[in-house]
Specification:
Length: 297
Amino acid sequence: MKPLHIEYRPETFEEFIGNDSLVRNIKGVLNRTQTFLFHGMRGCGKTTLARLIAKELQIDKMDVYEIDAADKTSVDDARQLKATAFLSPLAGKKKIYIIDECHRLSGNAMDSLLKIFEEPPKFCYFILCTTEPEKVSATIKSRCKSYEVKPIDDENALRLIDWICTEEKIVMSSKIKQIIVDECNGIPREIVIAVDMLRAITDVAEAEALITNKTNPKVIDLCRALLKKEKWKIIADILKELNEDPESIRYAVLGYMSSVLLNGDNKQAPFVISSFSESFIYSKKAGLVLACYQSVI
């Protein structure tokens, strides 16, 4: 089974949620623009839009080339790209190059590509994607149709969550949905990953602790064990598998217990908070073990 953020990658422009005016604009210029620059935060859909353009133009998969500029930064790489760009498509009438993280190209590599970006072969399209547009040279930008792909608003975030929950038959409370909206800041990929992570969670406090602290699942297991006052052997086994910094675990446990208390009455959570109130900077793993032991004995 694929992760949801891969399974639910939009296959058409109609499935692309948010950035409506941007999508309309792109569709309107496809017949007269061959070089695009998409910029914006990671996870907002830049590469997805590039792939949708390839589909809209009916470009065969054999003629779609995705290049990670982080691995192809030199002027020699740029020259090789130019040389292959002039070759006819393998399977259709058009070809497309999607250059991810294009700001990683060296200055000389960018200069080498100026001419082909300005006058690409009639069958060739270029789409540049970047999270750092300020590092892309002005001369490159001037040769591209530039678009900012923005995070989606809360309404579209809920629409995305509801769509996936419906398709996957996930029962999720409105409170947990709102936690996802609040914590993911409109980043579609993060929203879908959060739905995947919380799909089996019904407890609001647990959901908030998981998503807010990006907590290691083993730390969550520890928190649950402490709340249930499990047998020491169970807790000790969990501790043996935890290799994170004890102080970061302490903060995660405190955050989890705070969420539990804020969302309901729990008699064990205050004892855990009290046991974890002192820093583990000096006591390290021994301090963590002692705090756990004091919480349940």
